[in-house]
Design brief:
Layout (H helix, E strand, L loop, with lengths): L7 H25 L6 H28 L7 H33 L8 H6 L2 H70 L6 H20 L5 E3 H19 L3 E6 L8 E3 L3 H11 L8 E10 L2 E8 L13 H14 L4 E7 L2 E9 L5
Parallel strand pairs: 2-4
Antiparallel strand pairs: 1-3, 4-5, 5-7, 6-7
Helix pairs in contact: 1-2, 2-3, 2-5, 3-5, 5-6, 5-9, 6-7, 7-8
Length: 361
């Protein structure tokens, strides 16, 4: 269990504040009762009493660090404190009265008689001080425990938040990595169709695939990248598809100035374009078009990937790895601030994404 330490300066300041409070109370109550001001018992004694407790508090706090409340059984924790309390409380009040007497001697105002006779005349005060010491003992332990558990609570909240953040990052990274083997398998499968029929085209596609893998691996593990950088990483994949489909495919990219600085999830565009190619372009014999648009709309970034294919069929509801993965990543990164829509029409399919417009600066 973590412990909380009060420095000697803090303890002295706290008990001096207590002395000021009770001194003021004595003076005000005495004035209200028309009792003459007695500096020795109204002020001086309160100061000595508080300074004595400042010393004995350090002993109590040390015992609290050694055996914190709530850290063990009743026998191993409470019993030792009860024994220490029984010794410390009378020792504190006797020390207070002894220091009181010694201070008056130093000030040249020694009370009549010896120290023993002085203490003998304060039997009631010693009993009162001992019983009050019992209360102060547990009050000091309780305050120490309150500080300890408050700090532990804060530390646990911070640790829980850090753990949740790491788990969230791990989930997002797992989702991001899930897409890589999926797109690699699909791309290799597309290339294999040309290995024997058109080796030159296959070699060109393999070269672009190598460049795509290099850019992807060198892109690091950042959760987000600027849209312009994401488009640069996407370029080899788009070239692979141009080589694959030739004149059958036209790819259009529209990103106005300023929108390219917006941060988007890393490797998010590739599965969207791949979905448009596999479920749109591949089903259209000629004049296939894939459009990728990005634009800022106030404090939002809107992205659209469209194709003019025959539209999604009954089985193409967006539950595939690429689109499902995109939905999950948007939810993980932006929560309710992220929006994903898949819609179809006679003209084709539209995937629309909206997310907060943020930049790296």
């Amino acid at each position: 269990m973590r412990v909380f330490r009060f420095s000697a300066v803090k303890l002295s300041a706290i008990w001096l504040a207590v002395a000021v409070f009770f001194s003021a109370e004595n003076v005000l109550v005495g004035a209200a009762r028309h009792r003459p001001f007695n500096w020795q018992w109204d002020v001086y004694h309160e100061l000595v009493y508080a300074l004595s407790w400042a010393v004995f508090s350090s002993v109590i706090l040390a015992a609290g660090r050694r055996r914190p409340l709530g850290s063990g059984s009743l026998r191993s924790t409470i019993a030792p404190h009860l024994m220490l309390m029984a010794v410390l409380a009378p020792a504190q009040i006797l020390t207070t009265y002894t220091a009181h007497y010694a201070g008056l001697v130093l000030l040249g105002q020694q009370p009549p008689g010896t120290l023993w006779t002085f203490l003998a005349g304060l039997e009631g005060g010693i009993v009162w001080g001992t019983l009050t010491g019992f209360l102060y003992y547990w009050l000091i332990l309780g305050i120490q425990a309150a500080f300890v558990y408050q700090r532990m609570y804060r530390e646990q909240r911070v640790a829980a938040a850090e753990l949740e953040g790491r788990l969230s990052e791990a989930r997002l990274e797992a989702l991001r990595l899930q897409v890589h083997p999926h797109f690699l398998f699909n791309t290799l499968n597309a290339i294999s169709a040309f290995v024997e029929a058109d080796p030159e085209r296959a070699r060109r596609m393999i070269a672009r695939l190598g460049e795509l893998l290099r850019r992807t691996l060198n892109g690091g593990a950042a959760a987000e990248l600027p849209l312009s950088q994401e488009l640069d990483q996407l370029a080899p994949y788009l070239e692979i598809q141009r080589i694959r489909f030739g004149d059958r495919l036209s790819i259009e990219i529209e990103v106005p100035d300023g929108a390219g600085d917006a941060l988007i999830p890393t490797f998010m565009l590739q599965p969207l374009v791949e979905n448009a190619v596999e479920h749109g372009v591949s089903r259209k014999q000629n004049g296939a078009v894939v459009r990728l648009r990005g634009a800022r709309q106030g404090e939002r970034l809107r992205l659209e990937v469209t194709d003019n294919g025959p539209g999604p069929g009954p089985a193409d509801r967006g539950d595939g790895i690429g689109l499902a993965n995109t939905r999950a990543r948007l939810a993980g990164l932006y929560g309710a601030a992220g929006r994903f829509e898949l819609s179809g029409s006679p003209e084709g399919t539209v995937v629309m994404i909206e997310l907060p417009f943020r930049t790296a600066n």
